[in-house]
Amino acid sequence: MTDIPSDTRAAAPSTGEEGAAPRARPATPLADPAAERRRARRSRRYRRDVKWSPYALVAPFFLFFLAFGLFPLLYTGWASLHRVELGTPTDMEWVGLRNFSRLLEDDFFWNALRNTFTIGVISTVPQLLMALGLAHLLHYRLRGSMFFRVAILTPYATSVAAATLVFVLMFSRTDHGMINWGLGLVGVDAVDWQNGDWTAQFAVSAIVIWRWTGYNALIYLAAMQAIPKDLYESAALDGASRWQQFRHVTVPSLRPTILFTCVVSTIGATQLFGEPLLFSQGASPTGGSDHQFQTLGLYLYEQGWFNQHLGRASAIAWTMFLILVLIGLLNWAISRWIRRDA
Amino acid sequence: MRYRTRTPRRAVALAAVAALATGLLAGCADDSDEPGGSSGGGGDGGDKGKTTLTVGVFGAFGLQEAGLYDEYEKLNPDINIKQNSVQRNENYWPALLTHLSSGSGLSDVQAVEVGNIAELTGTHSAKLVDLGKTQGVDKGAYLGWKWQQGTTKDGKTVGLGTDIGPTGICYRKDLFKKAGLPTDREEVGKLWAGDWKKYLEAGKQYKKKGPEGTAFVDGATGVMAAVHASGKEKFYDADGELVYKDSAGVREGWELGAQFAEAGLTAKLQQFQPSWDQAFANGSFATVTCPPWMLGYIKDKAGDKGEDQWDVAAAPKPGNWGGSFLSVPEAGKNKEEAAKLVTWLTAPKQQAKLFDKRASFPSAEAAYDLPEVKDAKNPYFGDSPVGQIFAKAAEGVPVQPIGPKDGIISQYLADTGMLGVDQKGTSPDKAWDKAMKTIDNALDQ
Known about the structure:
The complex is a heterodimer of chains A (342) and B (445).
Chain A: H1 6-11, H2 33-79, E1 82-85, E2 88-94, H3 98-104, H4 107-139, H5 145-157, H6 160-170, H7 178-185, H8 197-225, H9 229-237, H10 242-270, H11 274-279, H12 296-306, H13 310-341
Antiparallel strand pairs in A: 1-2
Helix pairs in contact in A: 2-13, 4-8, 4-10, 4-12, 5-8, 8-10, 10-13, 12-13
Chain B: H1 2-39, E1 51-58, H2 68-75, E2 79-86, H3 89-102, E3 109-113, H4 114-123, H5 144-149, E4 160-166, E5 168-172, H6 173-178, H7 185-191, H8 196-209, E6 215-217, H9 220-230, H10 248-262, H11 274-282, E7 285-290, H12 292-302, E8 310-314, E9 320-327, H13 335-345, H14 348-358, E10 361-362, H15 371-374, H16 386-396, H17 406-424, H18 428-443
Parallel strand pairs in B: 1-2, 1-3, 6-7
Antiparallel strand pairs in B: 3-9, 4-9, 4-10, 5-7, 5-8
């Protein structure tokens, strides 16, 4: 620290609102006017630098965001107020809010919303519970813990398409399907997974659970490792069992993390697309012959790219966005409530 | 400390911004440079004077595989052909639509599937070259209905036909024998000639004595599609009005498909799914609607085990299933050369070669008398004279009005309608209502 210029040392204690920005101080004993001017200029440049270079550094992100995030978002909003067809996207006819109002009486939309919700619940709840349990197990001192940690993350690193195709084979209707074969061993009749309402949603959820449990477990594990050890020690001294420690020390400390994973999983569930698309035979966008596992994302895709109605698809996209905003607000309210509670 | 870190930090920031900026600029520059650079600027002798023509296709289209590009390049040393292939037409077609409307990203030649050709002629003909006026194109060489499909109402031919898919019925001789049905292709054809109802009767007969665990047909959706293809009218009438709800042809196909399902004559399979492929290998069904390209598919899926088990007979009524067109976008840099290439590729002689190598059946009638077609026999299918069988079917294919939404309607009719009848046992009336509701929603802009 010996090379710190003398004026910085002099200025540092006295600066308040500007951080540690040095100033030319009249109090400096050697008041050579040329040096003074030089120092003033330098300091002005320095202040400008401090003030503007952060903006320059974040600018690339915002430029990209403008081009690939905000503009498409707004343009989608604009398109949702028009009748636009995929074949002739420049030929737009103003229809006002009709694309939105028709959603209210669109059975397919409500069906997709319902499916998104149910698939979201059947996939998110067990997934997070299992992740919590897994993280708890991995938190113990284990032989080869690194191996297990990497292993549970591998599903996350697998492509949706590859994973889904394997699951399609496993959930196949015929006796060749591995799951039906397994059920057959214990004397249960073969299930037509794809064609049943609940079975299909369960199968799609299974893919989601398989892919995301490990990811969430790792997040929980990281948060668990940040919990001070002495909390456990004192709990153990008080005679708390492992389960009680988990319930009364681990879970409360993980609250913010749990909330975070809930939000991320909810967003993921709302946008669910790849799994149900590929789960249907021939990657049809209808989500089964009864639309039994068509999610909002899939319905959007069907309207836009299959039925070629970009305007209607845009309205669905915006509705999904509004639903996510609503979920965000709800999350904000809950987290405030939790904090006040704590 | 602060003074010392200042310069490096700014330098890093500047470097980062500069790097990003050059990256962006380079990205832009690449884009605008490419078309001009690779196409050689219309024979100015820029880069060796070669013109590169790009051909956009979907799936394994066959032109390249049959060696037709190589042959054309040999005949025209200053032409270089490059193919861009997209695996599935469901992905290829929407991309082509957006490229057409923006006028960029197009290949010099673009393939179009028959399910999309009506949309192309209906709404995008202004962006395509009139190939009917190209030198060397002989309208008389083509089947009338195929030529008509690629032509707009005001007579502009924007798509030249490559292949067609006149249908026959492929059947398993061994299974037919066990079920006490004739096995000779002439007799089998006579069994149901001219009437789909007789096909149903043959199915019922098969069910009585056919081997356990096998079905007469692959699935009800396949039967429905085959009947639809063979009618005088499908989803549109001659004036281009949508008639899918009342059309007698649509109704006939629906009812027959449902009867097959309800009589238990189907293996409840959906076509082009892995389970369907497996069923070919396992021999779980005895008949399937067969356009020429299906022969290769069956051979591929049924493998050596199926050798000489299959044969092909005439369908009750022939229809058309599949086939494609080639068109030339106006926005292309080498329109004239591209049109020449298309003319050559779709000429009867080349179509016959394509049939010989890839089993894509010619849409040019003039090719049927060429030896590649006339004398064609398929050893896998018991040396059946496939060239003659399908040429006869092609002549019987009805001239059916097609429309821009044919593909969507038929897929929904199958996926959200007949499939439920077949696989879930939904009542045909309920399934029909459901399919109609889905189709109405899909067509409503």
